[in-house]
User: Which sequence fits this backbone?
């Protein structure tokens, strides 16, 4: 695969962390787990993977800033560039032995995400994109689906757990959307949901209550695959508010119209 020096650093870091996670995934029953809040768990594997990624990225680009799910935010000497990392998206799947989880790494430049990697080690699928160069899965060019009828489309979302405040809105979304489409999937890994939109596996995706590290890499992959992204609430910043709609250009407006109806 051809890419910039930064992208190659990102892919190398994702693969190295992926090897560590796969090893731990095989021994998932023995992992020591600590609670991070209701329904939200973090494992030793998660923390170890973030350390691997941080060591690789910051070793190669020591002046860049950092935002990671486990270790938080650290400004860099270069204020224009920042890594945004989720070392294990789909932690609950991982801890339950479900092989659907991913590593998400994005590079932000002057407030804009310019490169993204979403790596699914269990399936050896590396989704990646850079601004202006298209989106890829391993060596295959990605393109969003071409479906233009809502009733033929499959969409993805996340259903809030553990009493999260976005549950009523999501249930309302489902009640409005499901009669109009071919189905809704809830697979529990936002980064992969976005990657699957880019690959045409899903026709669209939406979710609320996310963090920047859940979204950053997937957003550029969708856009570079020809898809559209936007906030659930018009005018909001996706990464700041954590609420996103992503779809192919043919159904984006129809999907957004359903999701943006007043309560």
Assistant:
């Amino acid at each position: 695969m051809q890419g910039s020096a930064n992208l190659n650093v990102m892919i190398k870091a994702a693969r190295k962390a992926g090897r560590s996670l796969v090893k731990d995934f095989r021994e998932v029953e023995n992992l020591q787990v600590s609670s991070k809040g209701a329904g939200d768990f973090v494992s030793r594997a998660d923390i170890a993977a973030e350390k691997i990624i941080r060591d690789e990225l910051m070793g190669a680009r020591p002046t860049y800033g950092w935002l990671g799910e486990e270790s938080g935010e650290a400004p860099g000497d270069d204020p224009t560039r920042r890594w945004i990392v989720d070392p294990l998206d789909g932690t609950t799947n991982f801890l339950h032995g479900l092989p659907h989880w991913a590593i998400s790494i994005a590079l932000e430049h002057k407030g804009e995400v310019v490169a993204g990697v979403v790596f699914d080690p269990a399936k050896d699928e590396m989704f990646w994109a850079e601004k202006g160069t298209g989106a890829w899965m391993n060596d295959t060019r990605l393109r969003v689906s071409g479906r233009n009828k809502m009733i033929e489309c499959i969409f993805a979302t996340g259903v809030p757990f553990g009493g999260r405040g976005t549950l009523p809105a999501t249930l309302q979304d489902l009640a409005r959307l499901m009669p109009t489409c071919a189905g809704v999937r809830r697979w529990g890994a936002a980064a992969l949901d976005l990657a699957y939109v880019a690959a045409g596996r899903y026709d669209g995706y939406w979710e609320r209550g996310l963090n920047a590290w859940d979204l950053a890499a997937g957003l550029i992959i969708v856009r570079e695959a020809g898809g559209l992204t936007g906030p659930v609430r018009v005018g909001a910043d996706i990464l700041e508010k954590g609420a996103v709609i992503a779809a192919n250009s043919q159904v984006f407006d129809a999907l957004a119209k359903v999701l943006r109806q007043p309560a």
User: Anything to note?
Assistant: The CA atoms of residues 76 and 239 lie 20 Å apart. The chain has eight helices and 15 strands.
